[in-house]
């Protein structure tokens, strides 16, 4: 006797498999849930225990009197075997160290792409020097190439080549011309240091250059601004006037008797087009001979350029960089100066009046870039 066990998803499927192999004469000894150790643990199955005296051969009925004639095999039932569903593995827990490594690799890839085409080691070293100090990628490339050419032509050390390359990129300072009467308009964003800069220049012109000076404030938006400039005027010993509206300026200046007139304006957001228009009106009514754009050197390079374009749109402005002493990476200042190409007038590096201001000599900015004395 042959005894075999058959398993399937259902009892009918297990029985069909038994009859297909052992024939219709097979006897069911028992049936129930599958207990095979290999059965899919995520599905329920059934098993049948079947016995027969003679196994089915070539599709014939199983009996001792079976005819020797070979019959064509009968088509058995089609049994569809279900594949187990794909189970996605649970996500791995996030490892912050892996994230840091990926970020580091991405940064290295970007840096390698930027360095592509730079050529020899001299150019790469100069390029990295400028990048490390915050100069933009485009200007770092241009300056590095100029340094390489200078090193090859003059056979000089890299530091000397960098200094000379930077020196030739900047022109001489463009301070206020005091040989003739000057009316100077100061513009810039809120908090740029316009009022303090005006006080420093008023002290310099009056106390050191012996010029008669008039201070005018058009910043009626902040009471503190008027009071601050008034206090400075009393300390320095120069007259002070407030223009409540731009149309008051011609009346204040009708009897011109001052060598230098310094006009303070209110700082505003770049998005206030109305206030930007007011600056143009003040410039026209005051007949300003000089426009000083006051920009904090702590700004990002792109914002410096945008600020300059908005505040000085249509004006022949000079740039006064303030807060030089707060700069950690001077590359942003250099990027803005090189991109704009406007004349530089003054640099301020503190709150002390009148000491912490100087003309924007290229040597000062080069020393700032090299990490030396300002």
Automatic annotation (TrEMBL):
Gene3D superfamilies xref list: Flagellar FlhF biosynthesis protein, N domain (1.20.120.1380), P-loop containing nucleotide triphosphate hydrolases (3.40.50.300)
Source species: Sulfobacillus harzensis
Pfam families reported in the protein's UniProt record: SRP54
Domain SRP54-type proteins GTP-binding as annotated: residue spans: 181-371
Protein name: Flagellar biosynthesis protein FlhF
Coiled-coil portions: none
UniProt keyword annotation of Thylakoid present: no
GO BP annotations listed: bacterial-type flagellum organization; protein transport; SRP-dependent cotranslational protein targeting to membrane
